[in-house]
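Example with several molecule types.
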Amino acid sequence: MVAIDIVRKDDGSCEVYAGGGRIPSGKDAVEWAVEAEKRGAGEILLTSKDADGVGQGYDLAITRQIADAVKIPVVASGGAGSLKDFSDAVFEGHADAMLAASLFHFRQLEIMQVKEYLHGMGIPVRLN
Amino acid sequence: MVAIDIVRKDDGSCEVYAGGGRIPSGKDAVEWAVEAEKRGAGEILLTSKDADGVGQGYDLAITRQIADAVKIPVVASGGAGSLKDFSDAVFEGHADAMLAASLFHFRQLEIMQVKEYLHGMGIPVRLN
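Resulting structure tokens for the full complex:
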């Protein structure tokens, strides 16, 4: 699994950050995702540093751009704060899976609640 | 997928950090992983904040403790810097998958090189 940490730039494009998300790499997120797939990545974990921990939703635009540009699974990460954020990641962001942490920590949502919601929206999830 | 960001404490235990890895939660990493599984997590992404971006290897001890404590897949994250780090994560850390970013960015290793190495060690990988 290749982690891609991104920060949105003023021009609207997304730059990849290296070194655990600390060092701007100068690389464009979409180009880097395509290159990672070409080099043999099995899966991409795409984390928006801007959205991470904020709880206002995944960065759907870059998730969709990358998910549409590669064939390997893309896991959306950073920003989940509500049930709708998870289904948006699938329907609008075209993500294959979603990562979350904060909202489970602070018990804003229960994991099973998210799974049952997604199941109800017709999204395949493992319920047990 | 539930992300668990951890920091090793002076007493040797690992504390979970919330809010994108910024806020100490007071929770023990192993206990939290077990609770996440109980609550329905499908997979755990375990990131050592200490090891992340350093390239000196995954935190094998906590990876193993958690992988042995839960039945769901555990993805090791933070610290991969050499081929051996990947196989150590499997053999010593009992991880089901490994995440990396920095070393691919800086081209210290190629993704296919890691996969072929793991394959040669008898670890199942998808080679195409």
